Amino acid sequence: MLQILKMAFRDLGRNRRRTFFSALAVAIGLALLMLMSSVINGEMGNALRSAILLQSGHIQVRAETYDANKSSLKWEDLVENPDTLAGQIETLPQVKTATPRLFASGFLSTGDESAGVQIYGIDPDSSANDPYRQGLLSGDFITADDREGILIGQPAAEKLHLNVGDQVDLSVNTSNGDVLEQVFTVRGIFTTNTYAFDNATILMPISKAQAITQTDNHASTIFVLLNKDSDTDSVVAALQVAPSLEVLTWRDLNSLFVEFETMANSYIAFFYLIILAITASVIVNTLIMSVYERTREIGILSAIGMRGGRILWLFLVESSLLAVGGVILGWLLGYGAISWFNVGGFYIGNMGLSGMLVSNTIYAEPVMNDIVSVTIMTFIVTLLSGLYPAVTASRLEPVTALRAEK
Amino acid sequence: MEVVKVENVTRVYQIGKVETRALQGVSLTIESGEFTALVGPSGSGKTTLLQMIGCLDQPSSGQVYVSGKDVTRLNRNQRADMRRGHIGFIFQFFALIPTLSAYENVEMPLLLNGHSPSERHTRVTELLKAVDLADRAKNRPDQLSGGQQQRVAIARALAPKPALILADEPTANLDTTNGQQVMEIMKKLNQETGVTFVFATHDPRVINYATRVVTLKDGVIENDSRVNGK
Fold first, then answer.
1. Is residue B136 part of a domain?
2. In total, how many domains does chain B have?
3. Model confidence over A294-319: pLDDT tens digits?
4. Which of A15, A171, B38, B199 is found 20 to 30 A from A221 (Cα to Cα)?
């Protein structure tokens, strides 16, 4: 075996340039796979984190009859005494924070411009609202007792030409189906770096939202953030809520995202196949060339008694060495590409995905399991690519091989 | 003792619709220790007969025995095993593995036969000395002259101590001096070790070394004579 390894190594060294470019093909293939999987991980992870932090939370407790698509405000569709329930939920050790939120539909207008918005009634003091607080671009954050102030997302503010201190008319649907109108003052402009959210959301204290929508001491949901994603199921199991309420997890609340991820994974698998097929064709070509160039040598080895199986091994060892070299180089290139990609990230702006909270800038997040998977895939494809040339070599009749031109 | 026995062997090549009869009912017996030359013009069938005896090819009909074993219908692996254990080859084009040193080329058949490292070292050193190349052991083929390469090939052929060495035009690519040197070495090894040599040639200088000359023409043996070689 050692002799075969030595021969294979020296055979690869015969045409160093060709060997280098073949290993480079493997390396580029692997680096692309690593970068792709890391970017997808980054994008998906980011979208999921955004969805959890900004919209769904890890868990929501709401009325069984609540229809999120209609932002229902009927009392029977809402959670009564939400502060009490939130306080109870917060006593669980896995829970980071639990806070009531009231959602309503509204219409902002500034004379010339108008836009439909989603109103978030929030508890300004809750740490669940830190993403908005930290994303404040100008002005001040709203306070719990503010009766006229709102926060508005940056794209919506730009669209309506609103600045801090400006006044704006807000028409809101109420619990009994009426529409109430009130003038509000823009206290601050925020960004979550998520266009779809920032473009259509305004924030106000929940007490004011309850007042204007006439929902009294009710909330659409209890928004719960956990210390760890993995605690979700244990918290759901521990929650004791009234029969009229239901407990939904981030998986239930982001079903579109889950479906999108499944679809994206299919496309990614297709791209993986293309990249691997290109890599494989380069390796097959290299080794087939090598077999043709060394036909007479194969005849000599056969003449001195080397069995076909050993000749097969010789070529498989060559493809293994190519694979090892390519994989090492691929890791260097792959991690280099990921590091380069993450210098400032990759700005994608508004991707126009409705229902998905994708950040404006994506980063690559390498996950060791995925990196190991694509590495093994590349290694196996390279080995399999070597199989056909190896079988061709092992099946050469010595008398035919010996006749070959040098 | 018979090392080679060929009985009524024919070899027919079918190329498209054209049928070529390279051997037509050849029968031949070669005894141990003989130094036999197969001679004849190009296309007479010498190389084909050598390939039949060397288990590199199989006859269309007839029987071939090597060291008493019927090798006519062996499968690929069995033929490879037969070559590895019983037959050494020397080719016109030297036929060394270019990536291996002279030492490693000679060592290769011993490796394939599963000899221990110390056995291999002893045997390779002894053989390289016998062909006067002990000082070139580490050189690769491209660092050796044609004559030196052919001497390495002789050492390699002898390495597994075969009963039979087959040489196909062993001096065809060598100048007079090197050709003579190679023949002297083969003759000396034949006399010292008793190994049987069969070589295909049409070089009269080579034929002079033979103790038996088998002349082929158009795939049949035309003449078979014992001579007093050098």
1. yes
2. 1
3. 888 888 889 888 898 988 988 889 88
4. A171
Angle at which helices A2-14 and B102-112 cross, to 10°: 140
Per residue in A158-194, pLDDT tens? 999 999 999 999 999 888 888 899 999 999 999 888 7
Task: Give me the phi and psi of B173, to 5 degrees please.
Answer: -105, 20
Which residue type is seen at B81? Answer: D
**Does the CB of B77 have a partner CB in chain A at under 8 Å?**
yes
Mutation pick from A5, A11, A304 vs chain B, by most beta carbons of B within 10 Å, is A304
Q: Kindly state the average pLDDT of the residues B190-201.
A: 91
Q: Which domain holds residue B158?
A: 33-59+76-226
How many A/B residue pairs have CB atoms within 8 Å? Answer: 69
Look at residue A384 and tell me whether its pLDDT is greater than 60. yes
Looking at residue B156, its amino acid is R
**Pairwise CB contact (< 8 Å): B112 & A310:** yes
Whether A300 sits inside 8 A of B96 (CB atoms) is yes
What pLDDT digit, counting tens, does each position of A43-57 carry?
888 778 878 888 889
Which DSSP string do the residues of B35-79 spell out, in sequence order?
EEEEE-STTSSHHHHHHHHTTSS--SEEEEEETTEE-TT--HHHH
CA distance A229 to chain B (A): 58
Q: Is the pLDDT of residue A352 over 60?
A: no
Instruction: Say whether A3 and B96 touch across the interface (CB within 8 A).
Output: no
Which chain B residue has its CA at the smallest distance from A401's CA? Answer: B56
In B131-213, where does DSSP find H-type helix? 146-158, 176-193, 204-207
| Span A225-272, pLDDT tens digits | 999 988 999 999 988 888 889 999 998 888 877 787 788 888 888 888
Q: Do A306 and B84 touch (CB under 8 A)?
A: yes
Nearest to B44 by CA among B198, B223, B207: B223
Cβ-Cβ contacts under 8 Å, B51 against chain A = 399
Mark yes or no for CB contact B80/A302 under 8 Å. Answer: yes
- pTM of the entire structure? 0.70
Which residues from chain B sit within 8 angstroms of residue A301, using beta carbons?
97, 108
ipTM score above 0.85? yes
What tokens does A204 get?
A: 């106000």
Q: Does B83 touch chain A (CB under 8 A)?
A: yes
CATH number of the structural domain spanning residue B196: 3.40.50.300
Contact between A151 and A164 (Cβ < 8 Å): no
- Note whether residue B176 is domain-resident: yes
Two structure tokens written together for B17: 């619709």
Task: Report d(CA B42, CA B183) in Å as an integer.
Answer: 21
Rg (C-alpha) for chain B, rounded Å, is 17
> Using one digit for the tens of pLDDT, what is the confidence trace for A85-130?
999 999 999 999 999 999 999 999 987 888 899 999 999 999 999 9
* Residues in chain B closer than 8 A to A306 (CB atoms): 80, 84, 112
Predicted confidence (pLDDT) at residue A358 exceeds the cutoff of 80: no
pLDDT of residue A209: 94
Contact A399 B57 (CB under 8 A): yes
Chain B residue with minimal CA distance to A309?
Answer: B77
Considering the domain boundaries, does residue B191 fall inside one? yes
B213 pLDDT more than 70: yes
CA distance B174 to chain A (A): 17
The answer to the question of residue B133 being in a domain is: yes
In 3D, which of A85, A17, A19 has the Cα closest to residue A318? A19
Residue numbers in B near A297 (CB within 8 A): 97-98
Which chain A residue shows the shortest CA-CA distance from B77?
A307
